[in-house]
Amino acid sequence: MKFLLVFSICSAVTAYCNNPMKIETQYNSWSECVGAGGLLIKDFSVKLEDKINKDKLYMNYFCNEVVAKGTPS
């Protein structure tokens, strides 16, 4: 089973989240995907600290299981 990391950037001021974006890397386990999401948030908070503070931004994420084509769901 493989998993994709999907995330959105949201504003606590406007209560708006952008459209979900996905990381093209396929992770081998749920745990690996969740860990990658945590690192993504950490990097986001460090690199964009001023903008995050100014605009009250936050990020949410989730992991989606990759369903192979032709596989019944």
Structural class: alpha+beta
Instruction: Give me the number of helical elements.
Output: 2
Coarse morphology: elongated
Describe the biggest sheet?
4 strands, antiparallel
The residue-averaged pLDDT reads 91
User: Helix share of residues?
Assistant: 25-40%
Counting DSSP E segments of at least 2 residues, the number of strands comes to: 4
Order of helices and strands: EEEHHE
Report the end-to-end length measured between terminal Cα atoms.
13 Å
Low-pLDDT segments, ≥5 res: none
User: Which strand-content bin applies to the residues?
Assistant: 35-45%
Radius of gyration, in Å, reads 14 Å
List keywords for this structure.
single chain; 73 residues; alpha+beta; 4-stranded antiparallel sheet; 4 strands; 37% strand
